[in-house]
Description:
Blueprint: H1 2-24, E1 43-52, E2 57-60, H2 75-87, E3 91-102, E4 105-112, E5 115-117
Antiparallel strand pairs: 1-2, 1-3, 3-4, 4-5
Amino acid sequence: MPQFVLPAAQIALTLALAAWMITGFTRLPGRWLRWKMFCRATFTVITLTGTTTDGHTEPVNVYDHLSPGSFILGPPQLQAIINYLISSGRYERLDGHGRLLNAQGEHHIEVRDSHVVL
């Protein structure tokens, strides 16, 4: 009988740990990314259109202007990139819309006349 106690305890502990990890990845009602690694992260999924100085419009991928490997982008960082693109002289203005995902849920976000609007 004692020879089965250790394997039984290991199996019970493994199952308890697996259940705890699975519930950590489920989301609470109205909340995204419950896992503690993401609890303070803010993700922005946005479509931007840039108007060049000669009046043409073109799509702008904001992630091209982040450092490699970066994917967390909140409103202040988005505004900083927009300011950089405007000050570089490449675009006269930027407009767009998208979604902001954080611990408080999903929100609508817009860029109007080169300003981030929540």
